[in-house]
Amino acid sequence: MKVVEIYNEYRNVILLSAFLAIIGVILAGCILMPSLFYDQWIWKYYWGPIVSDAAGTTVWCNGVQANEGYTLISELTYGVMLVIVLYAIYELLKKLKISIDWIFCLALLPYIVFGPVARVIEDTGYFNEPFVYWFISPLIYIQITVYVLGFLVVGYYLQELSRKKSPKTILTYTLSIFVFADICYTIVWALGIDYGAYSINPLVFYLLSFFAFLPILYRFFKQKTPTVNTIVFSGGLFLLSPSLYLIARWIAGEQWGFSNETRFDVFLLILGLVTLIAAMVYFVSLKYKNNEKIAVYKKPLNLTMIVGHMVDGIASYISIYDPLKMGLPGYLEKHPASNFLMETWPPLFPIVKFSLIIVVIYIFDILYKEDLKDHVNLVNLLKIGIIILGLSPGLRDLLRVTMGV
């Protein structure tokens, strides 16, 4: 039997064994050679920066310094991990026969927004230890991935169950998930667990939970059957709603931490520039809709990629360099590659991001269109990953400067 055939037959076992072997080597190294494996590697490049971010200052462990932000090593590591996770999700979606398209992207949108929103709330100093660590990257994104996978699996099984059970039964099962989450929060509140600057009142939490459940309720009255996308979307709203509530209270003046002042003028400026760029791309694509090489840029996923990375590029440029002299506090760029571009010439960062997305779309939808026509789901998943890489840091920067954090 050939090596390829052996791999295909025992692929899951081989991959699981390799993963466990890597974890085993790391654990053994931390036990036998802690100075090398933990202090000089895990602490310095991964865990230390998380602790530093939470503390807001440089931290030390056995004489090894760690600072908030990313290094080239950590960025490469997280990049490889992202590729692996995307591939694993792709395999899962393929097995569950879930189409990866624009509707699926919309279903994921609350989770995509939750990441930067939760990060900004952490920036305000809302969370207490040890809860604060779960809202610092990359742990926040690991947390979100678990939520997405959980609701995906639940949505799939409820959708399959709807073929055997009545719509009311499926609605009851779905409602019970939200009610169970409400009960868990009520217990947390009743026990007085001090997770943040103040606790959200359970009645408010129930109202937010009901708001998140509305898409499922609408789907029930409209078509009687749930879909995976609807359940995933409602799950994301359930996750996102409390964070949006906290941000609304901050902006309304109930601030639990230091703020330079809220800046809606900067918020409108950045969104205005992003909207202008997106509108120009859309209308040029619409004008030349008969030219396939141009028309592809108005497709929803492609346009969203441009929007996501323009939010990141423009928000970073304006918040760090304040080109219009709006009196913004000095922000810093954590990513080495982005910092290099802006130090070379500040506007170069948004320009390069825009150019790269244009090239990526051309490669996917024009240059290798025929070669990738049998891998549409994989291409769309990669596009969603690209959207996340742009929109997440961009939205965080936008909210930080708006809230004066």
Structural class: mainly alpha
Can you tell me the residue ranges where pLDDT is under 50 for at least 5 consecutive residues?
none
Q: In sequence order, what are the helices and strands, one letter per element?
A: HHHEEHHHHHHHHHHHH
Fraction in beta strands: under 5%
Question: Any idea what the shape is?
Answer: globular
Q: Number of DSSP strands? A: 2
The major β-sheet equals: 2 strands, antiparallel
**Counting H and I runs of at least 4 residues, what is the number of helices?**
15
Q: Mind telling me the C-alpha Rg?
A: 23 Å
Characterize the structure shown.
The chain is an all-alpha fold and 405 residues long. It folds into three domains: 3-73, no CATH class; 99-251, no CATH class; 264-403, no CATH class. Helices cover 74% and strands 1% of the residues. It has 15 helices and two strands. A two-stranded antiparallel ribbon has the order 1-2. Strand 1 and strand 2 (64-66) form a beta hairpin. The longest helix has 28 residues, at 376-403. The chain is globular. The termini are far apart. The mean pLDDT is 89.
Note the topology.
Blueprint: H1 3-9, H2 11-32, H3 34-55, E1 59-61, E2 64-66, H4 72-96, H5 102-123, H6 139-161, H7 167-190, H8 202-223, H9 228-251, H10 264-287, H11 292-295, H12 300-321, H13 336-344, H14 348-367, H15 376-403
Antiparallel strand pairs: 1-2
